[in-house]
Amino acid sequence: MLRDGIKQNNFIIVGRAGIDFFTDAGVAAEDADRVTVGLGGSSANIAAGICKLGGQAALVTRVSDDSVGSYCVGQLKRYGVDARYVTPVGGEYRNSLAFYESRVEGHRNVIYRNGAADFQMSEEDVAAVDYGAYGALITAGTVFAAEPSRSATFSAFSRAKAAGLPIIFDVDYRPYSWPSAEVASDVLSRAAAECGMIVGNDEEFGFMAGDYDRGLDKARELAAQGVLIIYKMGEKGAITFANGEEIRTGIYPVEALKPTGAGDSFMAGLMTSLAGGHDLKTAILRGSACASITVSKPGCAPAMADTPTLETFLAAHPGPTEP
Known about the structure:
The protein is an alpha/beta fold. It has eleven helices and 13 strands. The chain has helices spanning 2-7, 42-52, 67-79, 123-127, 149-162, 181-192, 202-209, 215-224, 262-275, 280-295, 307-316, and strands at residues 10-14, 18-25, 36-40, 56-64, 82-89, 96-102, 109-112, 136-140, 167-170, 197-201, 228-232, 238-242, 245-249. A hairpin with a 2-residue loop joins strand 12 (238-242) and strand 13 (245-249). Helix 2 (42-52) crosses helix 9 and helix 9 packs antiparallel against helix 10 (280-295).
């Protein structure tokens, strides 16, 4: 069901869209006399990345009923993302905003999430989706950090599964969004149990296991239950657990400009490569190439590869590291 759903290359994505401000290359925040604006937010980035690589994606979320919310909707449409399920919310709720530096050494990323509009996504929002029109549902863990978004997303999972859609989960643990680590561990573990594919890094799997040193054991435990697991280890590459096999892959080294956006770009590249008929190992490597492209440019959604950029990069790069 997982591979068949992904092959449709048409995804319903649940989660936030935000606005990013980022400095010019190498410029610290205190030295900036200008910043560039771009679309951000993990789920919005994944959706934009999928569309840039030739897939289709629709986003389900809430945005603030103001100029920032309008900006996010306008940017989603610019990238080709279907925004019919993006709903404004009024009052004091505000869109997520990130301000980060386009540098690796000393990199700082400040995210404003007070009264976040996307956490107001409701059961009504997810009930409006025609799940049968899509091949798979993708979400990132931030949606579970607060109510009513948490319950709404679990409802979306149930509705998607009833329609025959596989669920793909990027753990994306952000401590600042959660009331406590204990709540996060419980909720993210519950979410993981509903999914056909889980993507996370070593720290995130360790977090779900309750002990960083047990992250790999947690990944193997979930894989033994039939879940496809991609266990990312930064510059050391990734281990994928699928059908009783362990597939080890490296990364495409580049001169990174900043660390943000890599995971979202990886997901977009992985999904569209699987949809395009590539085998699992090749799709993972193409996702890794997308991540490398994104960290080598300013911004998140603006830095994500389109298909010509990805193919040119792969043709010119000497190849991935040994895992």
